[in-house]
Design a protein that fits this description.
By secondary structure, the protein is an alpha/beta fold. 34% of the residues lie in helices and 20% in strands. It has a single domain, classed as 3-Layer(aba) Sandwich (Rossmann fold). It contains three helices and four strands; from the N terminus they run βαβαβαβ. The radius of gyration is 14 Å and the shape is globular. The chain starts with 5 loop residues before the first strand and ends with a strand. The model has no long low-confidence stretch (mean pLDDT 91).
Length: 97
Amino acid sequence: MSESMMIATTLAELWQALRLLDRPLGLVPTMGYLHEGHISLARRAREECSSVAATIFVNPTQFGPNEDLARYPRNIEGDLKLLEAAGTTWSGCQRPK
């Protein structure tokens, strides 16, 4: 497997990656717009696991009727760079709309 982080945006890519990743596998689930807390979780997972997967998923069901999902901050390119620098093996994210 290459040293660079794999990125998946479809379920097919997710399943392919899951077959390739070494175990144990650490998971860092996020809604994106990462901060040091997220990155420290990725670093810790890297210390304890053979592979680290991070997800970036802004879940619309977590927003109430008066909350603006469209205004939730997103920085997918920046998030992916931070995760890769922290040693994340694989990242799954939504396609930008």
